[in-house]
Amino acid sequence: MATAIQIIQFLLIISILVILHELGHFLPAKYFKTKVEKFYLFFDVKFSLFKKKIGDTEYGIGWLPLGGYVKIAGMIDESMDTEQLKQEPQPWEFRSKPAWQRLIIMTGGVIVNFLLAWIIYTMLLFNNGDSYIPSDNLKYGIVVDSIGEQLGLRTGDQILRVDDKQTKKFNEARLDLILGDEVTVRRDGEEITVPLSDEGKETLFATQGMNFIDYRSKAIISKVQPNSVAEDAGLLPGDEIVGVNGEETKFWDEFRTKIGSSVSEKLDITVLRDGRTEHLDLVVPQEGVIGILLDVTDLSVTDEYSFLEAIPAGYTRTIQVLTDQIRQFKVIFNTKTGAYKQVKGPIGIVDMMPTVWDWTFFWSFMAMFSVWLAFLNILPIPALDGGHVMFLLYEMISGRKPSEKVLETGQIIGFVLLMGLMLLVFGNDIWNIIKKFI
């Protein structure tokens, strides 16, 4: 059932994004009286699951859920159907329209993707606000594992800047560290700058250890899970754990380390409760989980937005996501980090979906993925929207239209590049599945 929920979420997100993206091409094409022969959700290689012709357009659903398309008459596209182009241009064909109209038709999908993300982020900020932990509010510094140490960080560091840029939010600092070259921290009262090693990033991507860094906090309990070891021991919300077996544990990571190394052992837990010290006995279960949630209200803040305030904030969030995605390419193309091995295809993306339905995640992921599709589609690669835009801009600047032979050759080259990329991401997905069973 959990896998089914993941698949349904993925297919629904992809379906909405594809339909809206293709509408971005379809509507201006219709407005400029250009004939649209097909409008398909998913690809109909050899056959389709459903199709119905309304007017001049065949609407359908293909069986291969890797995208979708609109087939516009008189246009060289991925179908490589050039028979129509051998005839004299007709007024309702794409090739007969002015360059500026063709440009609007080709950029329509990308524009819709960007606007969709902007609208979603605006509504999320308006409804939920923006909850985060400020980077400058980490009074106890950070906690890192062995991967974080390999990157050059140390537990207790206070992050000041990444690549000379101050980061407002802690979760953004995590991404900045992955994408950055150096970090400035306060360590033992001294401000120092350390390089972020490519070797550490290689280990991070190879192990997918994205929890290499966390914020350091006191071990103050916000909730005790029912029927848990913690409840049986007598722990209560509001308790602050300050010791184990007579040894001081000032922070949650210190207590967690003690728990992890004491499976099946009986521990004497010292807590502060209403200004008094209490001692409780607790036996750590085999799974090492005692059933408590931390109280981090002293670290987190929530920015609230009115609807009018959420509109520019949503735009800023969209631009930030786009900028971060562009920055990721620097890491992906750096062979030393091995990040290219972790590029995910449909199988990997399905695995990222939550196993229970989460509307906040659903809309947040859709907005992020919409920005990602806009960015990928506008790349100047033939066979993508950006490839068509590239040729159109050349035509508008030079006043000369590229020959159909050039357009066909470019389409073939772009198609080969895209197929190679798809083989890479599917290969990564399959290899990551195999590794789980090795």
What does this protein look like?
The protein is of the alpha+beta class. Helices cover 46% and strands 21% of the residues. It is built from twelve helices and 15 strands. The strands form six sheets. A four-stranded antiparallel sheet has the order 11-10-12-13. Strand 1 and strand 2 form a beta hairpin. The chain is elongated, with a radius of gyration of 27 Å.
Strand order of the largest sheet: 11-10-12-13
Distance between the termini: 25 Å
The largest sheet is: 4 strands, antiparallel
Gyration radius, in Å: 27 Å
Task: Count all strands and give the number.
Answer: 15
Briefly note the structural class of the backbone.
alpha+beta
Strand content: 15-25%
Total helices: the number is 12
Shape: elongated
Weakly predicted, low-confidence segments: none
Helix content: 40-55%
Oligomer classification: single chain
Order of helices and strands: HEEHEEHEHEEHEEHEEHEEEEHHHHH
On the 0-100 scale, what is the average pLDDT? 82
Task: Offer a concise description of the structure.
The chain has 438 residues and is of the alpha+beta class. It has helices at 2-31, 99-128, 146-151, 170-179, 198-207, 229-233, 252-260, 307-332, 346-352, 359-377, 385-398, 404-437; strands at residues 36-54, 57-72, 130-132, 142-144, 158-162, 182-187, 190-195, 213-215, 221-224, 240-244, 247-248, 266-273, 276-283, 292-294, 301-303.
